[in-house]
Amino acid sequence: MEIVRISEEHLRDFQELYIEFFRELRGKQGWSPHAEAEYRAEAVHYFKRDDLIFLAFDGGRAAGFIRVSSREGSFWVEEIYVRPKFRGRGIGRELVKRAEEEVLKWDSALYLFVLPQDKDAIAFWKRLGYDTINTIELVKDLEPTPRDEGFHTVELLGERFRIFRWRGEKFTEEEKRFMELLDEFYRKGGTKEEFLRLVNRALERWLE
Fold it and tell me: Which domains are delineated in the chain?
């Protein structure tokens, strides 16, 4: 396996991987991907902008990529992708390692966003030493959108949040039951304060 910084020679490989990344992501979300020409143009834009883009080659074949951008004084992993037939070989880990080595030349931290539905991605990043910090995404639909249906209910310190349902979700039965109960709790008028009281009492009883 070889990890290389992108060059003009490898731009077409990056474009194909970039398209595959979004095709897989949109499939999980149940959404249709954009036209391939849009993704090809985005890939060229990021290359010309001089984002940190590394490609992995296995047996001479493009196997995956990682793209890191610099914004607001910090470095962010924007996408990481390994083609399905190359997974399980440590390629993702090596891509992250190479990106970290490059970022360390300018900064001591590397950030990323992970969707809460993507349990495989969360587990992957945690194995590499990444931890959850403080970002919550908010949205207000100014007109009706497909977001009006297909959510799970979750919470953070008693605040109600919604996350999209994905195809092929990997929630455990206990996690699914918790989200079902939580949704019913809030639908029946439960409040943040009531939720916190219930959880605190349950934890206190367990700790006794």
Answer: 2-127 (3.40.630.30), 146-207 (no CATH)
